[in-house]
Amino acid sequence: MTASAWTPAPVALPLLAAAAVALFGHKVPRFVRTVIAFATSAFTAIVTAGLAWASLGDPIVYWFGDWAPRGQIPLGVCFVVDPIGAGLAALASVLVTAAVTFADRYFDDVQAVFHVLMLAFLGAIAGFCLTGDLFNLFVFFELMSAAAFALCGYKSREPGPLQGAINFGVTNTIGGFLVLDGLTLLYGRTGALNLAQIARTLGGAHDGLVIAAFALITCGFFVKAAVVPLHFWLPDAHAVAPTPVSVVFSGVMVECGVYAVARLYATVFAPSFAGFVPHARGLIIGAGVITALVGGVMCLAQRHLKRLLAFSTVAHVGVMVSGIGLLDARAFGGVATYVLGHGLVKSSLFLTAGMYLHRLRSVDELELRGRGGALPGALFLAGGLALAGAPPFGTFGGESEIEAAADSLGYGWLGIVFTIAAILTAGAVLRAAMRISFGWGPSDGEEDRGERSEETETRPGPGLPLAMWVPAAVLLALAFVLGTLTGLDRALRESALRFQDSSAYAARVLDGVVSAVPSAEPSADDGSSLPRSLLVVVLSCATAFAALFRERIPAGVRKLAVALLGGALRRLRALQSGHVGDYVTWLVLGVACFGALSALLLR
């Protein structure tokens, strides 16, 4: 059987398994449901990884029902498999496998609906990453969102999860409408929904309609990616969602928003904005920089572990968006590596927070002071170092590639932004790990606890079950191994060259012609990445120590820090109000600003 024949499997298998569990799950033991979910997601991971490998030299185009184009007109719906999209689907499969394994011991009673929703979520993400049709991209986006809303409110008898799910649902539904509006404009202009056909029909056309479609679609997916100021739903959702759900939210769902922006810009909009590349760069990079800095500052201000990790995700999304905004193949390849590394590390950290909640009934850093065990403490410390970009974790290689691309394009200052974001987020995680494991620092503090917290559903046992700590350790080990794979950066850069070539994409999909793409040169590392990374690790540890032992810092320095940052931090905290009306207001303001800037810079 050829690789092409397996193309529908990553979507069909999870959705069929979800339907089977929905029909018969209440009639079979819990163990059987867990095995079905585990086996399906694990097999999907194998299939998607195989598709990523098979598409390295030539993207796989699969026309459902063999409805291939007649002449230049696509009559059917297709999947277009490339290593970047298939790799993201493989990451989703791995994380769902880890989440359902962890959930089996995390919940005293795992309802069948949990496995149904996780499998539906996986099938939706796989379709989202593989489809070559804009309307189906929207359909899978909505299916992913619907499953995510229900997973966030899984504990429906508690008010916190319901409020978090409502905030999540309202803001992301607005994001979905933005995508649909942009899609409608493109369809009205081109009469096509296939991405390749849209690109070819537009033919580089540049007018107000194209700019409006770009702004609407980009903002819609920026909501899913939690880009500031469209991010407020994410910390609230993480604080109340079950820990296994937080794994897939931060590990892969927000990354799908970043992927969609990259895919649509490269395939559809790049020819139209070819004469405005510096302006487009400034627009997208600006959104990324603001997101990285706001997320980093808010991360350091948290003591609730899951909210801390959620704001860390916001900061790292800023790094990804900035990398995408460079509109450069090397940067795209670096972002792909960074997404894989960040997804694995962040998921491991969430599972470790879940271990604390399971054993110690809390995820409050101050309440856990000195109570953490050796194993979760070691995982949390290692995860903090990985977020700082310590080699050889995948985050190190990805960020190094993005910074090298930024330097070559005259955006070397982005390295300073990335450094600040890494120091703030890694410093917060290391501070929490040291306080919980070693009992360092005061037992009280000014960090924001958060208004809501996930309630426990399990009775603590005498130790940590294998099903809880093994997935966390394996994910962290995979992030470590990822950084040691020789040739990965070059393979991803070559894939990014294809990813960015709109005309080659259209020729492959509509004409069946494989266009030659220049071979990517090996990374010319000047040796500066490693010292810079080690410096970030040292500064992250210094930030953690400064937060833990701030009473030893001279009073004048403390007063200066409060004077410079205290007011801004209080205002940022106040904005995270928990009220959906406030979040919608900021969403509307953010969309209006992005749309206005798009009209000014790209017209």
Number of E-state strands:
2
Amino-to-carboxy terminus distance: 49 Å
> What structural class results from the helix and strand content?
mainly alpha
The string of secondary-structure elements, in order, is HHEEHHHHHHHHHHHHHHHHHHHH
SS element count, helices = 22
Average pLDDT metric:
88
Main sheet: strand order: 1-2
Work out the strand percent: under 5%
Q: Which ranges are low-confidence, i.e. pLDDT below 50, for 5 or more consecutive residues?
A: none
Fraction of residues in helix: over 70%
Structural write-up:
- It is built from 22 helices and two strands.
- The chain is globular and about 70 Å long.
- The model has no long low-confidence stretch (mean pLDDT 88).
- The protein has a two-stranded antiparallel ribbon with strand order 1-2.
- The chain folds into three domains: 1-132; 156-272 and 556-603, no CATH class; 276-443 and 463-497 and 529-552, no CATH class.
- The protein has 603 residues and is mainly alpha-helical.
- Helix content is 71%, strand content 1%.
Structure, briefly:
The chain has 603 residues and is an all-alpha fold.
List key phrases describing it:
1% strand, single chain, 3 domains, mainly alpha, 603 residues
